[in-house]
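Question (not urgent): is this output format expected?
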Amino acid sequence: MKRIVNFNSFNVFKVEKEIWDIEYHNHNFYELIIIESGKGSHHLNNVIFPYQKGDVFLLRPSDAHEFTIKSKTRFIYIKFTEEYILETLLINKKNELKKVIQLLMEDRSLVYESGIKNKTDRIYLLQLSNILLHEFSHKNRYHKEITADLFSGILTILIRNTMNNATNKKWISQNLSRIDRILYYINVNILDPDKMKIENLAKEFLLSPNYISIYIKKQTGFSIQQHIMQYRVKTAEKLLLQSSYNINEIADKLGFNDTSHFNKIFKAYKNQSPSAFKKANKSV
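Got this back:
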């Protein structure tokens, strides 16, 4: 079997093919393949799955694969090494997310067919992949930091989709503490205001609304609302810089009462308004 060797720790590129011309092979790196357009079949470890626009495949170094193309296909490739994950991506990640990313990298059962099932997430991930490709290719100021953040966002969306897998839920239950699971749940569901309601969050973890607030404060030193607000502000930063949503739409998506409330909270955390933050960082 052919083995493709790559000496770069991180690489992003796009190719378009009408005929697949690479023999069945594996790699010495991890590979995330996003289908931007086209359809056909993906032969992965001697199992065949159909692919279409928006599908995402995560390949580990031991995985062998090839494609059969039925209609002209544009592939976006993100190639990365374990060293890149450890030395660049996980430096500032919270412990629970580190553990789940490790699961994603190691457990074959989690991502075999397309890793993205949610329709909205398929759109988001495809948009983020193209932004990542542009940033990686143009190498403007701070491009390393921005590409790391974008790739982190892509992996987190992938994790959000795979965490519904029964095996993943079992692993999370066995390997993460209760507080880790609660904070992880807040992180990946922050764009769903209904799930962020205290009563629904408490129900998810079989706790009373009063006790979950006391428990999180005792375990972390911060209230549940402080955690939710911190995640909202961090998500707002990404949406301001990486999406086409206006400030009113971002405020609505993150569950703020209105744009004025969003502006007030964002300014309290970032010492500048959302519009000023967007202007300052878009111009860098």
